[in-house]
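Request: How about a record?
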Amino acid sequence: MVLILCPTYAFEMTHANANCRAAPVLDRREADEIPSAMQDRELRDVLGCFATGVVVVTTLGEGGVPVGLTVNSFNAVSLDPPLVLWSLSLTAPSLSAFRNHRAFAVNILSEDQAPLGPQFARPASNKFAGIDWGPGYRGVPLIRGAAAQLECSIWRQYEGGDHEIFIGKVERLSATDKAPLVFHRGRYARLAALT
């Protein structure tokens, strides 16, 4: 799951919202005896301890309609070739759009774009209402004002449990000096310079 949006929007999101706390160390027998719901909650709590950036991944749906969702499962994979990955729930309404269009863009949100996280996380018929965007590689939507963007072709797709993992080959990229939007322990956080 992602963002302050809690489990309500979990079907369109892919990481943890949580209060970070120590998880008990269990041996394999004990873990098997814990109800699945408890294991899920513990996992979300632990994943919520990992600070991430917030991105909106975009593509084109049927009829060229722009599609996008908030994600913080985004990660780098390789420099040669240049590969990145992210994952999407198998029950997400936008799954078919990402499977059918062979390109996507990763819009790394800037700190001043915090309202876009919830806008692209919750279900809506037109998530792009009021959004300033333009077409990028293979027509995929690029959100103007983002801290950085990676325009990708689909390189591989894998099923991973209850998610589909998309690996993209970076075809184009751009970056600004804007501060990124950061998410940690169930809420937005601000980067501080280390001295």
About this structure: The chain is about 15% helix and 35% strand.
